[in-house]
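Hi Q.,

Before the meeting this afternoon, I wanted you to have the 2-phosphoglycolic acid prediction in hand. No need to reply - just skim if you have a minute. The sequence and ligand are here:
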Amino acid sequence: MPVKKWYMGTNTKMTKTIGETTDFIRRLCVLTGHIDRSGFELFVIPSYTTLEQANRHRDPALLTLGAQNMCWEPRGQFTGEISPLMLREVGCELVMIGHSERRHVFLETDEMACRKVRCALDYGFTVLLCVGETEEHKQAQQTDSVLARQLSLDLARVKPEETGRIWVAYEPVWAIGVQGKPVAPEYAGEKLSFIRKTLKERFGPGGEDIPVFYGGSVNPDNALALAEQPDINGLFVGRSAWDADAFSSLIQKVLAHRETT
Ligand code: PGA
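Predicted structure with the ligand bound:
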């Protein structure tokens, strides 16, 4: 059976201090507390230094807490890195791997992503793997081959029985952030379907149940059209989610729309 649950989440990138993050999370829990979580999951991925307090101030039944990155080893000579043990200690349940800024600003490779995915699964986390093509890839009509390569290499060490702890976000690099260009919802839909097909080929029936999200300049104007795409299970939102009231409105708008379609 394909995934039925709907997901919405945000990566706050490097934008919120501890106090700002806890205010955000508390308010989000209050504003979305009435939404039935059996069919909906809300996740927030804030900066490392905020995680401990974020965990204390959230209701775990209402909000899943994630980290923006993680080292592929639990301990050792990895200056500047954060280990799965440290993330577990502060209540993290989810680890994002391969965000476009990690790949393109910090030059992380698919090999690193593969090791991180394996390590995150070994330490009990759910993994949110981000994939997506650059503008150049898109122009050269290489999007499908890029997505296929990222999924194949980054998930190479995932066993079929572990697919219940894998989430995938399709985030075209050219659509992300302040300079991002808006995606045509049909284009996003086509690529989400390609990702779904690739996951099914790779994992068999388990691939059908991996939640697949769209991210990259999601906003109140395009969210509904994106949410209507056939192979989408959620929206991964940056800037439009960083105000709790605005994010809660967006969530409720999308959920209400899904009920009527
Ligand atoms: P954006 O960020 O919504 O601000 O474009 C998306 C992301 O980087 O996940």
